[in-house]
Specification:
Layout lengths: L1 H14 L2 E6 L4 E6 L4 E6 L1 H4 L4 E6 L5 E6 L6 E6 L4 E7 L7 E6 L5 E6 L4 E6 L4 E6 L7 E6 L5 E6 L5 E5 L5 E2 L11 E6 L5 E6 L5 E5 L4 E6 L7 E6 L5 E6 L4 E6 L5 E4 L1 H4 L4 E6 L4 E6 L4 E6 L4 E6 L1 H4 L4 E6 L20
Antiparallel strand pairs: 1-2, 1-28, 2-3, 4-5, 5-6, 6-7, 8-9, 9-10, 10-11, 12-13, 13-14, 14-15, 16-17, 17-18, 18-19, 20-21, 21-22, 22-23, 24-25, 25-26, 26-27
Length: 348
């Protein structure tokens, strides 16, 4: 009987991931059960040694979560064991750690990259030792605000908000280059997200509407996608099959749904989704989209089949306080394997 119960639990977890939410306002983390949309636990500020946790990333197996502490000086990273919600380590990023603005774990799970917007430095964390491996200093990196890995982890792409260029890090050597076509390609580039097939990436910014499409096989620009005028792209996530991309528009309190085959756009507006300054979003394996509403202190749950609101988790039920970043836990608990850049909304 005990064995049967265990197998049932594993099956449930696989179908319904846990949704993790970083609360910038009170330096806590809320964990939501994707099967019930109920709060599982809240990791307190003291428990996680958080200080305004902003970007975070999971290892691909979902065992560890790495929370960059935006409010710490110098910045630090809190490592949480997701099996028991306990603090494993606090990694000091040293004198180059300031205003961490993006986090990404490699597909192999051997390193985590942290983009420090304030210093223009990329911190590399060794997940085997839970320590700072090195700091990447390069003239090709300027105010980095987004990171996304190639499908095989050989390269990491960094959106430079300072120059509008996309830098490419060779993860074997940590050398940094800017392909000619990526130089100044996206003014004030902030968000960068790679598609599940690894062939292309979407890049957006916080001050204008178009999404720029990068051809990652040839390191060229393959097109652009027009969004409603005045769109502020705060986050982008692809559906698992790559057929659609979902864009959080914090200015209009809406979600723009892009058909990746023809670049047509459908808008889910505030009335349909109860959005209020959506800041980031995550695509769970159970075909539901979870949207963090930073100003609304809430999470909206959208059916990706109908683009309709199917649930709404208010502050009181989720212990939310400026929910600034949200990810579905990957690995055994289910959920996405892509680690997206946090939103373009700069913290206080």
């Amino acid at each position: 009987m005990r064995l049967i119960f265990l197998l049932l639990c594993i099956g449930t977890l696989s179908a319904s991931p846990f949704i993790w939410v970083a609360n910038f306002g009170n330096s806590t983390v809320s964990v939501i059960d994707g099967a019930t949309n109920q709060l599982v636990t809240t990791i307190s500020q003291s428990q996680g040694m958080f200080n305004e946790p902003y970007p975070f990333a999971f290892t691909p197996d979902g065992k560890y979560a790495y929370f960059a502490n935006y409010g710490a000086t110098p910045a630090s990273v809190s490592v949480i064991d997701t099996t028991n919600y306990q603090l494993v380590s606090v990694i000091n990023l040293g004198r180059f750690g300031f205003e961490p603005y993006a986090a990404a774990a490699s597909p192999k799970g051997d390193i985590v990259l942290i983009a420090n917007l304030g210093t223009g430095i990329i911190s590399v964390i060794d997940t085997a030792t839970q320590s700072l491996l090195r700091s990447i200093i390069s003239p090709n990196i300027s105010a980095p605000s987004g990171i996304a890995f190639s499908k095989d982890g050989s390269f990491a792409y960094v959106s430079n908000s300072g120059t509008g260029s996309i830098a490419v890090i060779d993860t074997a050597t940590f050398n940094v280059s800017i392909p000619p076509a990526f130089n100044g390609a996206v003014p004030a580039a902030f968000v960068i997200t790679t598609a599940p097939n690894g062939e292309f990436a979407y890049v957006g910014n916080f001050s204008s509407s178009p999404i720029v499409v990068l051809d990652l096989l040839n390191n060229t620009i393959s097109g652009s996608i027009s969004l409603p005028s005045g769109t502020h792209t705060a986050g982008i996530v692809f559906s698992p099959d790559g057929s659609k991309a979902y864009v959080a528009d914090s200015n209009h309190s809406a979600i723009d749904v892009i058909n990746t085959s023809d670049h047509s756009v459908t808008v889910i507006d505030m009335a349909a989704g109860m959005f209020l300054n959506p800041n980031f979003l995550t695509f769970a394996s159970n075909q539901k989209l979870y949207v963090a509403n930073v100003s609304g202190n809430s999470v909206s749950v959208i059916s990706t089949g109908s683009n309709a609101l199917v649930d709404y988790i208010p502050a009181a039920e989720g212990n939310f306080n400026e929910p600034i970043y949200i990810i579905a836990q990957p690995g055994p608990a289910g959920g996405e394997r892509a680690f997206e850049r946090p939103s373009n909304r700069r913290p206080r």
